[in-house]
Write a structure and sequence with these properties.
Blueprint lengths: L2 E4 L1 H8 L3 H16 L8 E3 L9 E5 L2 E7 L3 E9 L8
Parallel strand pairs: 1-5
Antiparallel strand pairs: 2-3, 3-4, 4-5
Length: 88
């Protein structure tokens, strides 16, 4: 199982979410630790981000942006779909 690393921006975004979305995000983050490319989730590799490649998970109208390697999964952002891609 990979280590879960949370960025400062992710923490700020997470605090702004309602409690239901927070619990969904926590469940998805725990699943990403086990398998970051789990096909059970709507996961997509983002275009234009080669080093390191960014991935996103759809959570309704929200998007969770993350990267991963052999030892860790880093959570970068979670925000509404209209805002999340502006400040990557």
């Amino acid at each position: 199982m990979r280590e879960l690393i949370v960025t400062r921006q992710f923490t700020k975004d997470f605090r702004l979410l309602d409690p239901i979305m927070q619990s969904k995000a926590e469940r998805v983050a725990q699943q990403l630790r086990i398998r970051p490319t789990n096909i059970a989730f709507p996961i997509k590799k983002l275009q234009g981000f080669a080093r390191p490649p960014l991935w996103r998970v759809r959570l309704g109208d929200y998007r969770l942006i993350y990267t991963f390697d052999r030892t860790s999964v880093t959570l970068h952002r979670i925000s509404h779909r209209k805002d999340v891609y502006r400040h990557l």
